[in-house]
Amino acid sequence: METSCSFLSCDHDDDERSWTMEDYAGAIPRWCPGCGDHAILAAVERLLETEQLPPERTVFVSGIGCSSRFPHYLTTYGFHGIHGRALPIATGVKLRRPDLHVFAVMGDGDCCSIGAGHWIHAVRYNVDMVALMLDNGIYGLTKNQTSPTTPQGHPSNTQPKGSHLMPLNPLSATLGVSNASFVAQTADWMPAHVYATIAAAFRHRGFSFVRILQRCPQYTDDLFQEAVRNPNLVEMLVHPDGVDAPELEKIFKNRRVHDPKDLDMGRHLAEPFDRIRLGIFFRDESRQRYEELRHQRIHTAQERIDRLNEEFEKYAV
Amino acid sequence: MGSPPATRPEREVRDSVVIRFAGDSGDGMQLTGLQFTQETALAGSDLATFPDYPAEIRAPAGTTYGVSAFQIHFGTQDITSVGDELDVLVAMNPAALKVSLPDLRMGGSVLVDTSAFSDRNLQKAGYAANPLDDDTLAPFQVLKLDVTRHTLDAVDGLGLSQKEALRCRNMWALGLMLWMYGRSRKATVEWIGKKFAKEEAIRDANLRALNAGHAFGETAEMPSHVSGYSVAAAELASGMYRTVSGTEALAWGLLVGIKKAGLTRLVLGSYPITPASPLLHTMAGFKDYGVVTFQAEDEIAAVCAAIGASYAGALGVTSSSGPGIALKGEAIGLAIATELPLIIVNAQRAGPSTGLPTKTEQSDLYQAIYGRNADAELIVVAAATPSDSFEVGIEAVRLATKYMTPVIVLTDGFLANAAEPWLIPDVDLVAEFPVAYRTDPDGFMPFARDDATLARPWAVPGTPELEHRIGGLERSAQTGNISYDPDNHQAMTNTRAAKIARVAADIPPQAVSLGPDHGAVAVVGWGSTYGPIHQAVRLLRAEGHDVAHLHLRYLWPFPSNLADLLRRYDRVLVPEMNTGQLVNVLRAQYLIPAEGINQVTGKPFKVSDIERAVRTRLEA
């Protein structure tokens, strides 16, 4: 099995199988009509097809919430975990099998509230995986409660006169963590951009954090309505090393060149602005990855015996 | 050359001795005790040790709550406890004397450093008058020695600061105690050489202090009534011995376990907590043998990473103490629901919340058996002694992988720290229990079950054509797909319980540790109380009482013969370091009138505590 793989990758050039998007489609999604998750799932299926990821070598791990049903709707391996804990479970999978393609799918409550501690540390560990944070600004599955990313003033069942607090900014928070290596934002109503962004995230070696702005027709219908109708409210971050979605160029005229290597500018651009910015805010492949730091070279039998004896010698006779 | 030795009394022969080294947290009492232990082990004695130290790293000097102590019980015979009463107390300051004196037996010896009994230190220890001057120490043999001055004299000329010089007091005391029991200094000399290899002056000072203490005993400087003692080597089975703590033995057991299971990886996710951290420390040294340690950001991440690793085909292990286990509770439920192997080690400590982190207790039994939301059964086992921890580690791996279930391994603060000589086992004699991942796609269903064990297949990511989804939402029997069907939930709940119940037939029947398998009284224990219970029952039997000792390793499910066995005794007494947990579980399971003997002082039971309690019940 994994013995044929090197530590970080597997060579599957000899694999004669091929897969279409339909081959990756699992159970019929039970998300609401109009939910942004449908488009995100389609973009993920397109990525799987384009990259021809063998289903057995691909693992989707999720937490709890609407978006965390994700693994059930694919035919890869899937682990639907507990609220907030997608990232540590995914990290555990990678600790055992660094060769697998691991995706963690979370919602805003999952990632930024109950699992916030894991999020911060996963960024720091920089384990090679793709983290998709589907951000609809509300707790949907539990029926309309304020989340950390709910805009101030937006009413919910828990804060009926409007959210009390300024929302948490997931991009700034992620970019503030030392060892962050890939931070991007996209939006469900631009499938081509979602695809291009997660494709870049997938190709990045390290922990790729992608916030996907996601419409909830049930509870936060108004959240992105204007931006959906008016492309001028969106600003695309573009660069030869950034996200490439040529089909969007004609619609989204606000384009800003941003070199993803520029962390300071990335942080600046992540701050609140009167337009929604989409694209790669930061990328640095030279950041240390946990699996590299913990990589164990193969020892000879004699070396292993010596090490064992060394370990024994720690005990008094 | 010193003065020629005066005529001294012959060394007194003793079967066993209990010594406690007690001093300030900064006095190096743990190192002193460990070195004495090493020399004693090398001399062939059987032994048991118990370090007892404050939670603070450096509590204020001279205070009673800053006292750090190390107790060793060694002798020629089977030593099963750390000893009820001290034969010898080494007290480096008034606070140490105050804390430990109540444990010294009448007529026992106490060595005090007179220089440390300053007015200020006496006041900090809460002594109104100097106990060296009144009759406080009248019932004991007192060795009033100016250890401080002797140490300073010994290290004079090495250019040490006063503070550095005073740090060698413990080695002077150690040297004297090694003389008193006729122990070699060889291993200690080597150890000092290694530890201070880069600090020559410090190394030489420690060596000088050690040798000076020894010479003090050897020459005529000791009071004439004090003689040395001789404790012969114990008759232990021959072979290679190592002194191990329960934690260390457990770590080795887990490692041997994965080898016997044929697994290539063990992933330990853990977060620092007293007294569980040493497992992470120990296993961090095993990285060349398939062990990956992950110091996680919190307790929940630690268990979740272990679960993720198990899902991917490793043996996931997580370790903590009660408060951390509480945090892991939801994730343990996930491992129960997804039916993945997982080992959860709980080194129990005293009290709810933070409690007494460095003190021992066995009050997490309810938490282990019942402490999760919903009907969430798993296997619970407990280690009895440091060396038993090795076997328990292997057994936990066997059960977790065979039944695809979490297993909680209960140890405690005593087992985590206490050490004993351990005959290194021949691991080739440990039975293998190869684990097979599912690879055959033909008829594969993630929740189809083995007829005998009811375990589901372990199908790990990377295996073609076995792609499937698991999760915490109730799963449909067979397919594992999400199911809200009422009958399915009933069936799955029943099956999960039945799977754990079947373990009872796959573990050894409960044996009797000491005494007959029927009769007047069974004293039933579990965990680290093994030594004191065993010794107490031995003493009571020697007096002719009809008493037996049973010690449970398997706490959930119980061995299949346990009910019948317990019913063959007129009375069942259950000593526990809690307010009565096993006793209630036994009563609930078997409807027997078991009675508790309970104590929660943060200290292990004394033999006499149990002996007295059992005797009282016998006479009642």
What does this protein structure show overall?
Chain A is 30% helix and 18% strand. Chain A has a single domain (21-289), classed as Rossmann fold. With 317 residues, chain A is of the alpha/beta class. In chain A, β7, α7 (191-203) and β8 (207-213) form a beta-alpha-beta unit. In chain B, the strands form 5 sheets. Chain B has a 7-stranded mixed beta sheet with strand order 11-10-12-13-15-14-20, sandwiched between helices. A 6-stranded mixed beta sheet of chain B has the order 3-4-2-5-6-7, sandwiched between helices. In chain B, α9 (246-261) runs parallel beside α14. The longest helix of chain B is centred in the middle third of the chain and has 19 residues, at 200-218. The relative contact order of chain B is 0.09. At the A-B interface, β2, α3, α5 and α11 of A face α1, β9, α11, α12 and β17 of B.
Q: Roughly how much helix do the residues of chain B carry, as a percent range? A: 25-40%
Largest sheet of chain A: 9 strands, mixed
Q: Give the N-terminus to C-terminus distance of chain A in angstroms.
A: 41 Å
Roughly how many Å is the radius of gyration of chain A?
Answer: 21 Å
Unreliable runs of chain B = 1-6
Largest interface by residue count?
Answer: A-B, 52 and 59 residues
Largest sheet of chain B: 7 strands, mixed
Beta-strand residue percentage of chain A: 15-25%
Shape of chain B: globular
Number of strands of chain B: 22
Q: Average pLDDT of chain A, to the nearest integer?
A: 92
List keywords for this structure.
heterodimer; A: 317 residues; alpha/beta; Rossmann fold; two-stranded antiparallel sheet; B: 620 residues; 6-stranded mixed beta sheet; 20 helices
Task: Give me a quick take on this structure.
The complex is a heterodimer of chains A (317) and B (620). Chain A is 30% helix and 18% strand.
